[in-house]
Design brief:
The structure is a homodimer of 211-residue chains.
Chain A lengths: L2 E5 L4 H12 L4 E5 L10 H6 L7 E4 L2 E4 L1 H12 L7 H31 L9 H19 L13 H7 L16 H11 L7 H4 L9
Parallel strand pairs in A: 1-2
Antiparallel strand pairs in A: 1-3, 3-4
Helix pairs in contact in A: 1-3, 1-6, 4-5, 4-6
C-alpha cells in the first residue's frame, strides 16, 4: 500500500518523515501543501488535522499527525529504524521528545522569522533569544555524538531522522556545521545512506518556486 | 519499589510526572533539584542527565528523562492512564508530542521570563511573540475539549497530564482560564481526581521559599 505524506519542501518536520519513508523502503507519494498561501488555515485542512500542522500521513483509513508519531508508526509498521531492544526504543522516544522540545521547534521558528517573513514583520529580539537557546541544544547533541556514530544504538534510527530534520537547509538560521564537528560528521553519515536526498529534492516546493 | 523523581515545585514538566505517579498509585519520593542555584548545570547533574533538564525518574537501575518518556513509562509499568486501545495509545503519543512542541515548551519559557528572571535581563519582544504563538495552541486545545471531557478517550490519561502541566500555576504568563472555557472545565475535572494536589503542594520548592 502506498501512503500519502502531506508535505512541502521547507518543512523540516515533513522531511523527517519523508526520510523515514525512503530509508524504510515504504512506497509513498508526496501531497503538496501550499503552506505559504494559507492552505493549513483552511477548513478542509483543519478537518484533516485540527492541529493545523504539516506533516500528515494518510495510510489507508489511518490519518497520523505529529512527526514524532509518524516516525514511530513507520518504524512499527516496517520493523526498520526503530532500534533493536526495549532500551533502545525508550532512548529513541526520549530523543524524539527532546528534539520536539528543544531543537526542531525553535529552529523552525528562527528559520521562518529570518527567511520567510518580510523583515518589517520580524519581531525585535526573538531571533537572538531563540538562537541562544538553540546553542545550548546544539551543544547537547554535539557532545552526545562525540563518541558515537548515531543518536541511539549502532545504526540509523528515527531518532537521527527527527534530530536532523532542519539541519540540511541552506537558509541561514544561525547554525554553521563547522562549529559543531560531531554534528557535521553525523550529518555526513546520514546523507551517505542509500536513497538520501536533500529536502528540496525529496519533497515538492522550495523557496526557488516563489521567486 | 519506590521510585525517585528529581523535581522542583516550579517545574511544570516535573509536575506532569508527579501527577502521573499519584494517579497511578505508584510509591514515589521527591528529590529536590535546586534549579535556581544552578544544580542542573553541575557535573554531577549532567552525569545523571546529559540533557541537563528536570525531571528525571530513577526507578531501580533505570534512569529516565523527558517528561513524555517518563509518562509513557509510568503508564506501561502500571497499566493505568495509558488508554485502552492501540488507537488511543497513538492519540496519546500525538498529544504528548504536540504538548512538547507547541504548548509546554513555550509556556515554560514565557513564565520563566516573566516571573523568574530579573526585569533588566528580560529580552525585548520575546514574551509577546511567544504569547501570540501560545494563543494558537490554547485555541487548538480549547476547541478539542469543546465536545469531550478528556484529551483522549473517556477518562484521564497521560495526555491530559502532559497538556495540563503548566496550567495550574498562579504566576502570570498570559493565560487566563476564563478566556478558555473548555480548558477551564477540563482543569476542574483533573483537579477533582482523587489525590490531586497543586504543584507547590505536590513537589518541594516554590517562589515563596525564595522571598
Amino acid at each position: 500500500m502506498t501512503v500519502q505524506l502531506y508535505c512541502f519542501g521547507e518543512s523540516g518536520n515533513a522531511y523527517k518523515c519523508a526520510l523515514a519513508l525512503v530509508f524504510s523502503d515504504t512506497p509513498w507519494q508526496a501531497r503538496y501543501v501550499d503552506f505559504f498561501n494559507g492552505e493549513t488555515r483552511t477548513a478542509a485542512y483543519r478537518a484533516l488535522n485540527p492541529m493545523g500542522e504539516v506533516p500528515v500521513l494518510v495510510s489507508g483509513d489511518e490519518v497520523l499527525t505529529q512527526s514524532g508519531s509518524i516516525l514511530m508508526h513507520i518504524a512499527a509498521q516496517t520493523g526498520k529504524l526503530g532500534g533493536s531492544t526495549k532500551q533502545e526504543q525508550a532512548e529513541i522516544l526520549r530523543w524524539i521528545l527532546w528534539d520536539n522540545h528543544k531543537l526542531s521547534t525553535q529552529i523552525g521558528t528562527v528559520r521562518f522569522l529570518m527567511n520567510f517573513l518580510p523583515a518589517e514583520k520580524r519581531p525585535e529580539g526573538v531571533v537572538p533569544f531563540l538562537q541562544g537557546r538553540l546553542k545550548a541544544a546544539y551543544t547537547v547533541l554535539n557532545d552526545h555524538l562525540a563518541a558515537r556514530d548515531w543518536v541511539v544504538g549502532d545504526g540509523p534510527t528515527i531518532a537521527d531522522l527527527s534530530c536532523c530534520g532542519y539541519l540540511y537547509y541552506p537558509e541561514p538560521f544561525g547554525f554553521d556545521r563547522k562549529d559543531w564537528p560531531h554534528i557535521d560528521a553525523w550529518l555526513d553519515r546520514i546523507s551517505a545512506l542509500p536513497g538520501w536526498k536533500h529536502p528540496y529534492e525529496l519533497m515538492p516546493g522550495s523557496p526557488a518556486d516563489r521567486t
